[in-house]
Amino acid sequence: MTSQAGESEPETLFDRWQKEQQSWQRLVIDYVDKAATDETFLTNLGNAMRGSLMANKPYPGTSGASGEVTRDAERSELDEVVFAVRRVEGQILDLTMAVEKLAASLTPADISASDEPAAHGSAPTSD
Amino acid sequence: MVAGALGLPDGDAERTAYLDDLTSRREKLEKLLEVLAAPGHVGSGATPHEVVQVDGTARLLRMRPDPDAQPAGPPVLFISAPVSRYFVLDLLPGRSFVGHVASRGHDVYLLDFGEPDTATRFADLDYYVNGVVRRAMRRITALTGDAQPAMVGYCLGGTLALLYACLHPDSVSKLALLTTSIDGDVKGGIPWIAHCLGAEGESYEDPRLVPAETVKSWFEMLAPGSNSAIGRSADLWARLDQPVERLRDVQTMATWVDDAVPASGRLLAELFAKFGPGRNSLMRGTAELNGVKVDPSRLAMPVLSVSAEKDAIAPPEGVDVIAQLVPHVQVLRLPGGHVGIVAGRTARRLWDITAEFLRTGELVTPE
Lengths: 127, 367
Prior knowledge:
The complex is a heterodimer.
Chain A: H1 13-37, H2 39-49, H3 73-105, H4 108-122
Chain B: H1 2-5, H2 12-36, E1 49-55, E2 58-63, E3 75-79, H3 97-103, E4 107-112, H4 125-144, E5 150-154, H5 156-167, E6 175-178, H6 190-196, E7 209-210, H7 212-220, H8 229-239, H9 244-258, E8 263-264, H10 265-275, H11 281-284, E9 288-289, E10 292-293, E11 303-308, H12 316-320, E12 330-334, H13 340-343, H14 348-360
Parallel strand pairs in B: 3-4, 3-5, 5-6, 6-11, 11-12
Antiparallel strand pairs in B: 1-2, 2-4, 7-8, 9-10
Helix pairs in contact in B: 2-9, 3-14, 4-5
């Protein structure tokens, strides 16, 4: 007896087994492909599993610096100077904001009033 | 016969069960492949923003959820811990604390302390509190005209916000502290673990840049084994039944945890000398910064403190005790862990509570 059009044969266990095998083969190939070509895959896998060759590989956009510092005297003094400069930069930023605030609070009349004595004082004379 | 040769068990029922199991395992591995091939996190933050100030390695970011619209609404500064990446508060599109608060009508700023370089090892509490944080608040005031922006501090960022508010109370309208440890003597949290593992030995006078791996090891000791290869593999395998989107969330959180930054040794030394186990100056009323007394009891602005029930980093007992120092503080304990309540799947509850607090100064807990 032949089956009618549109009526599908029930899937046998063997058919299912075959399909499953093919799916596993595709999966293995996909994994091998990713492992060979996909940087993101390797980074994520390495960091997720630790202990692998790719473990601790830095994520994109990060420097990955471990922060271990050679604490020799010269380097220490240089770092201290750099940090002192950074503090000064911060204070200059403070000063800049204070000046900006002051400037914003001044009216045009204040500005012209403050300009006048300076203009008189600095005006060239014919004497 | 063929099935037997293939190694399948005897009997149709057993063979069907065997194939079901095989299919289930394959589907898990397919999901794993999809998750591992996706980028871990949005390393530059999820919400569009502009940099409005650069201060050393730190950047002040102004959130612009709609880049075409000018930000409006009351300003608020979010501060995360300087020992981790700032974007835990801005993790993924649709999963961003700051993005959510901005969408509720606030002009939101986020402080990114940046990646510490070797010079940063000399940064102390004064540099952070009276320097970087204060300048961020001043810049916000300059940009908005509002002399009293609100502050939201998360974890150690909450400690910085609390110190700032105590030292400059007139410049803060509202203060929200999220999982911010107050009592340094409570056992089990990160200060206690770090103390046990030698953080106390960090030198103030000759500080080092504490490697990210060292900082991370303190956190990992809170749940020994959870970050080992075996622990992670077992956890991941157990979770592979979940939808891919959820697995991506887990992966995003895991990559954020992995992506630790080094820390200023001087800052850690000072934190332990002042607030660590055995010192506990906030609870003892002896806290000071640069000779200026830090007195939380004098805070007059609305203060909210939120703890997490399963917080292993800042145990809730050490957080909620702020009520002993700030009589009018509104204290709330939420289910979840330290990171989960700000960035997990149930974090929206905290986001809504915080947004409402920032609007009204009141703690309103949605049902």
